Amino acid sequence: MREIVIDTETTGLNYKGGDRVIEVACVELINHISTGNNLQFYCSTEKKIDAGAMKVHGITNAFLEKHPSFESQSDVFLDFIKEDVLIIHNSDFDMGFLNNELRLIKSPPLKNDVIDTVQLARKTLNTRIANLNYLCNRFSIDLSSRKLHGALLDCQLLAMVYLELIGGQQTKLELSNPSTKEETFNKKNIEKITSINKINLSEKEVAEHKIFVKGLKNALWHKIDY
After folding, report:
1. pLDDT digits over 129-149, tens only?
2. For 9-44, what is each residue's pLDDT tens digit?
3. Which helix (H) or strand (E) holds 211?
4. pLDDT tens, 193-217?
5. Domain spanning 2-188: which superfamily?
6. Please, which residues have CB within 8 angstroms of residue 46's CB and are 6 or more apart in sequence?
7. Which residues are known to be catalytic?
8. Could you tell me the CA-to-CA distances from 3 to 31, 78, 155 in Å, in that order?
9. What ranges do the domains of the chain cover?
10. Any bridge partners for residue 40, and if so which?
11. Rounded to whole angstroms, how far apart are CA atoms 79 and 88?
């Protein structure tokens, strides 16, 4: 199963008021595990970045000038996400901005199914607080590299949060015959396998056990024909 974690950075908070997407990042998951196949790009735009937004992500207007527009990169973006499920934190925000960009270039809106991790976290953890920092801290996910918001880093953090929200590390343990590329990938990404401890009994313990079993009356195994 393929899923895509998506995050955007923007010039401001209101696409209806003219704010635009300036960074897009996508992280591919196969069976809930990050494959390392990512997409990330910046977008030039005539809309100037709000001072408040610049403090959040650190992207400047001068930096964006050397990058192509969203329109010129839209085909690569759409080809990457295909029709797969999108994992988005506060999906109304990102989907609103992405569909606005598509509308501006006269492309149809995204029809992908979406899992909103804000809603998932509130339901799963029974909490009203569901921002990314809080969730990372709750699941002991390292935030030391998150000095500013960046779409790719936030996608990578969200992928780890999503894994925890749907069941944690055990979702990585899949028993399968690695006959396909996807199954081989899963096998390579198993992080932890529970070992079975072998207990060695002494001859005395074995003899005492046989005496104990022999003394049992009406034991179930006496009624079974082998």
Report:
1. 999 999 999 999 998 887 768
2. 999 999 999 999 999 999 999 999 999 999 999 999
3. helix 203-214
4. 344 445 566 776 667 666 665 666 5
5. Ribonuclease H-like superfamily/Ribonuclease H (3.30.420.10)
6. none
7. 149
8. 8, 14, 12
9. 2-188
10. 25
11. 18
